[in-house]
Amino acid sequence: MKSNWWPAPGTKDTFVGTEGFIDPFWVDRRQFFEVAVEGVILAKQHPAAYMITLLALDRPFLRRLRERRILKAELVGLVENLKRQAEGVLADNPGVNPKEVCKLVLDVTSRLERFLK
């Protein structure tokens, strides 16, 4: 999709001004893009906005895919924390707060509901 839109043919440059593409082998994509919790991809600096528009990087399918990846990562962390807390409750660990366990259960179920939509 990019070959017909290369901004600086015959050079090693991948973008000129606001147009072009970043080379993920040479730069950290996180310097150029940000992903919101809902999966929306945002431009942080040029040429990210150009890439988002030209390559349709924010189409609904990709937005949903990013959102699910974010939710999955959150769920993994929450489940690990919930497991530690629950093991502490079962072991009568005085440092474990049952209210924190309940909060974690609610966080996990809330994210699971969003994930399963």
Defining key terms:
single chain, two-stranded antiparallel ribbon, mainly alpha, 117 residues, two-stranded antiparallel sheet, 3 helices
Structure, explained:
This protein has 117 residues and is mainly α. It has two domains: 3-54, no CATH class; 67-115. The protein is 48% helix and 9% strand. It contains three helices and four strands; from the N terminus they run E-E-E-E-H-H-H. The strands form two sheets. It has a two-stranded antiparallel ribbon with strand order 1-2. The chain has a two-stranded antiparallel sheet with strand order 3-4.
Uncertain stretches of 5 or more adjacent residues:
none
Query: How many structurally independent domains?
Result: 2
Based on secondary structure, the structural category is mainly alpha
Strand order of the largest sheet: 1-2
Largest sheet: 2 strands, antiparallel
Give the radius of gyration: 21 Å
Helix proportion of residues, in percent? 40-55%
Shape annotation: elongated
Beta-strand proportion: 5-15%
Count of helices?
A: 3
Q: Average pLDDT, to the nearest integer?
A: 86
The end-to-end span amounts to 31 Å
The ordered string of helix (H) and strand (E) elements is EEEEHHH
Could you give the count of β-strands?
Answer: 4
Structure in a nutshell:
With 117 residues, the protein is mainly alpha-helical. It has three helices and four strands; from the N terminus they run E-E-E-E-H-H-H.
